[in-house]
Amino acid sequence: MKVDFKNCMIDINKDYSEELNKFLTLFSPIRETIYKEEVEEEFHDEILVIGMGGSILGTETIYYALNPECKAIFLDNTDPESTLRKIKSLENPKVYVVSKSGNTLETLINYKLVKEKVKVKEFIFITNGGKLLEIAKKNNYRVLNIPEEVPGRYSIFTAVGKAPLSAVGVDVKRLLKGAKALDQIDEKHEAIKNAIIHYLHEREGRDISVLFTYVEALTYFGEWYKQLVGESLGKNGLGITPLLSIGAKDQHSLLQLYLDGKKDKVITFLTVDNYREDVEIEFENAKKYSEIIKAEKLATEKALTNRGVPNITVELKEVCEEELGSLLYFYMIQVAFMGVLYNINPFNQPAVEEEKRICWSILRK
């Protein structure tokens, strides 16, 4: 994985050592998770993961990026049509029910639905308390815990991700190896630089962060990124707004806005050096199919730069466990450090709790 800042268009030369020291203290529980490899599940050819937000998005990111042969279904909404369609295809799944608090409304109702409608091989609860822990004890389900100091959206390297991913055949040790490769965190760390760049641009009014992925397999990474940024930084009237675009498709929908609309955006291109599937095809001077999308990305980058739109490129060698581990950990560092720069807590989400209280009140009435 490498990061290219040549078009970032901002000076970051300032001493941030005080903020870095504070960050390292706050971030230590998350760092510890990448050195623990104790969660390994037996392979099963069909699994179901029930969760919301940080309890499921990281697992979806890795599963859909790697696309292992094992069948995995994810219940992460309460839309009846979508949910019922998904569970109809299940035959005898191993089911992981994930909620740190154990009181997530959507997770509780989807567990109840699956319990009543699906023949299940085994339920495994990944939780620390609440109603889920009560259910697990009552039914003698196996329970895996999450470190208390690790928020859900930073928990992919805990049992939250390790358990279901190892059950579908993902090499979790390689995933952790990729994260560890980025763990020498100092003022020169590329994720720290990226945090400072986005923070300084936001101070100048560029408060929309566009993740423009030219790897369609990483679409769910964009969903994980949106939650990480939104819940970590959207506090006290501060933060940046995350958006997801897919290249080259969105060159024909949103690029006009990015080029000629308000100059309130920082673009991050997400690319790979080697696509896992490719084919030889002659078109103009291109010899491979992948050269087309690479040319489109380069053209978009140059057009944005010519228009004064700051942009950064994050390039993976290929889509594999190590590179995904590095990518996820990179953005955890970046977003958590931005929280320190804003002088807010990047590990809570207090405003969201209001909606939860109101919804429970509506249901109980």
Q: What is the structural class?
A: alpha/beta
Bin the helical content: 40-55%
Distance between the termini: 52 Å
CATH topology of the largest domain: Rossmann fold
Describe the structure.
This protein has helices spanning 17-33, 57-66, 80-88, 105-117, 130-139, 159-167, 172-180, 190-203, 219-233, 255-260, 290-306, 321-342, 352-364, and strands at 2-7, 46-50, 71-75, 94-99, 122-127, 142-144, 208-213, 241-246, 265-272, 280-283, 286-288, 311-316. 45% of the residues lie in helices and 18% in strands. It has 13 helices and 12 strands. A 5-stranded mixed beta sheet has the order 1-12-9-7-8, sandwiched between helices. It has a 5-stranded parallel beta sheet with strand order 3-2-4-5-6, sandwiched between helices. Strand 5, helix 5 (130-139) and strand 6 form a beta-alpha-beta unit. The longest helix is centred in the last third of the chain and has 22 residues, at 321-342. With 365 residues, the protein is an alpha/beta fold.
Structural features:
single chain, 365 residues, alpha/beta, Rossmann fold, 2 domains, 5-stranded mixed beta sheet, 5-stranded parallel beta sheet, 12 strands, 45% helix, gluconeogenesis, glycolysis
